[in-house]
Amino acid sequence: MMRVTRDEDAALRVHAYVDGELDPANALGVEASMAADPALAAERERIEVFRRLVREHLPPEEPPLGLRARVEAAVGMRRPRMQPSWRALAASIAVTAVVASGATSMLVAPSGSNAAREGIVDAHIRSLMASQPTDVASSDRHTVKPWFNGRIPQSPRVVDLGGDFPLVGGRIDVVGAIPVSTLVYRHGKHLISLTAMPAAGHANSAPALSEDAGYNIVRWTEGEVTYWAVSDASAQELDKFAESFRATPPDR
Amino acid sequence: MGGDEDHHQRFTRLVLPHLGDAYALARWITANRADAEDIVQDASLRAFRAIANVAEGTSRAWFLTIVRNTAYTWLRNNRPSALMVVDDLEKLESEQVATTNLDRGTPETALIAKTEAASLEAAIAELPPACRETLVLRDVQGLGYREISQVTGVPIGTVMSRLARGRAQVIKTIGGKST
Question: How far from the centroid of its chain's Cα atoms is residue A28's Cα?
Fold first, then answer.
């Protein structure tokens, strides 16, 4: 430990006095010692001049532009901003069928909401821009399904559709702060992301087609899971994909 | 569901108002703006994950503690040379005992008062990390001794001596430059 001399101790008290950290009794004591000792009085003056300098030259900083948005996106409070050019780029590739599994305790966005839709489409677009659209690349559902174990709370339904819609792999997307499972299938030159969002308490619903950012989306709810299939494949093809997925038992 | 909504609201109320302070602290520690932004983002995510644990009145010191730890971890991983001094704090303390000098030879206050922003900033940046962060937390960010003790994880007595030493050294540097 350090050695504190009497002088040093007196000086520390002057600093604490200037900083308003002393109780009234100690403050009076320091005032008395400053009155008696010009060196301590000079120390006080230096500290005060220094503090004035800092206030003048180093005022509190505003965070840089964009930092707040970055932080909000990191904690799932807003959708990351995208460059419009991504769309053109991404539109040339794929259909993503997104299967989100349920993160039980931290469900944020209702599974049918616009926020979920945006998050899922964003995830699809991001996957097209990454070097790989999947975190696990395999056409074997016995490889893809176990991969999700331990990474997300629920085990997604993974089916092998073969033929027109071969399985490409899977990945985990984060939609509204919830990690969800997304399966990726291929159809010709298109990729399909199929995300499964937990939808506890939601009634089953038939596939409904919509569009966002130039992508076709088919959404349906089955067994308290809402499935979102996203792709730049045509609406008819995507609809066929949804029918095929729904009609295929997992254990086939 | 409500649970996570609450976390976002809590985060907005308790953490987001301190982003400026967090960024400034990270920048003083790393001396690099881009690194400071990455560190604040990383620290924010950690804060978000632990948001349920923070008490209402202590959120600033709590968040700055996370930022500080994140920044030092970052330095340790990316620029270990910047940290050599910190790893040997005991030595630092004992070698620096006599910096608070009251003798003549200390600069005139009139000279100090003429210091320009860039010289002041440079003089603070030159301080050993422990003195620098203490001085920045107190004089730039306005934390009390108790909060600084919490953020830096040292007793209040150590906060006081680091602060006094840091100020003395900066005053000496800028006083010397103005002559």
Answer: 54
Q: Domain residue spans in chain A?
A: 7-57, 85-247
The answer to whether B97 contacts A3, with C-beta atoms less than 8 Å apart, is yes
**Cβ proximity of B120 and A53 under 8 Å:** yes
Confidence of residue B107 (pLDDT cuts 50, 70, 90): low
Q: How buried is residue B23: exposed, middle or buried, by Cβ count under 10 Å (0-12/13-18/19+)?
A: buried
- The mean-pLDDT minimum among A121-130, A165-174, B57-66, B100-109 falls in B100-109
CB B102 to CB A42 under 8 A?
A: yes
Residue B70 touches partner A, C-beta closer than 8 Å: no
Going along chain B from its start, the domains and CATH numbers come out as 2-80 (1.10.1740.10), 89-178 (1.10.10.10)
CB–CB of B100 and A16 under 8 A?
no
Prediction ipTM score = 0.82
pTM, rounded to two decimals: 0.55
Give residue A89's pLDDT. 44
What is the three-class DSSP state of A206? strand
A85-247 CATH fold: Phosphorylase Kinase; domain 1 (3.30.200)
Interchain proximity B167–A15, CB inside 8 Å? yes
Measured between CA atoms, how close is B59 to chain A, in angstroms? Answer: 17
Across A38-42, A220-224, B82-86, least confident range: B82-86
Residues in B closer than 8 angstroms to A62, CB to CB, are: 20
Distance from CA of A134 to the nearest CA of B (A): 24
β partners of residue A193: A97, A230
